[in-house]
Specification:
The protein has 1 helix and 19 strands. With 207 residues, it is mainly beta. The strands form 5 sheets. Strands 8-12-11-10-9 form a 5-stranded mixed sheet, with no helix packed on it. It has a 4-stranded antiparallel sheet with strand order 4-5-6-7, with no helix packed on it. Strand 5 and strand 6 form a beta hairpin. About 4% of the residues have low confidence.
């Protein structure tokens, strides 16, 4: 019956019945709790938490154990500066993390740390480096990624490349800042943006 809430002052555990709120310590330093931007529970019950400046945390909601997960460059497991985490998505076996200015990271759920999946504004990379949304695609290993000024693009997880799909560069969905991505049960895809709601096709073009 308890609720975990991500706030600008860290993770808070709410007990509606007793009307109590208790801070869940993520860093070990009371004065340095992170600003939480996104949370996603996986099928094992772990809660993945994205933060603004502290990277990614994994919390076991049953035991309360928490772990800070390292982000590393593509093909390595070495740590890097903690980027601002904007979006988190999960599949049965994979976690995908969109960052502000450092591209998309991926990790097998059972084998963090993360590895860089694709960079921004590079050959075969994203059209914009600030990733704001990640959505699992119809095909395994090919999620959709939304960026702030690049429209939706589809990523190849194994190759670490991005499809060049999408319409004309002046298309409204390409110009708008994508904030969220969602799909309906019938396979329709939608992008929430700074300019309103768009529907897009299998190639990323605005419909």
């Amino acid at each position: 019956g308890r609720v975990l809430a991500g706030t600008r002052a860290g993770l808070v555990l709410l007990d509606p019945r007793q009307r109590k709120a208790e801070r869940f310590d993520l860093t070990g330093v009371a004065e340095e709790q992170p600003v939480i931007t996104n949370m996603r529970a996986d099928h094992t019950g772990r809660l993945w938490i994205g933060t603004l400046g502290h990277g990614v945390f994994a919390v076991d909601t049953a035991s309360g154990r928490r772990e800070r997960i390292a982000l590393g460059p593509f093909g390595t497991a070495q740590g890097s500066p903690s980027p601002a985490i904007i979006s988190i998505a999960t599949t049965e076996h994979l976690l995908l993390v969109g960052t502000w200015g450092q591209g998309v990271f991926r990790a097998p759920l059972e084998e963090p740390p993360f590895r860089l999946l694709t960079t921004g504004t590079a050959p075969k990379g994203l059209r914009h480096e600030n990733v704001t949304a990640v959505l699992a695609g119809d095909e395994p290993g090919r999620p959709w990624v939304g960026s702030f000024g690049g429209g939706p693009q589809q990523v190849d997880v194994d190759a670490g490349t991005v499809d060049p799909g999408g319409g004309d560069a002046g298309e409204a969905i390409r110009v708008a800042g994508i904030v969220s991505l969602a799909a309906t049960p019938d396979g329709s895809r939608f992008a929430g943006s700074t300019e309103g709601l768009f529907q897009f096709g299998t190639d990323g073009r605005q419909m």
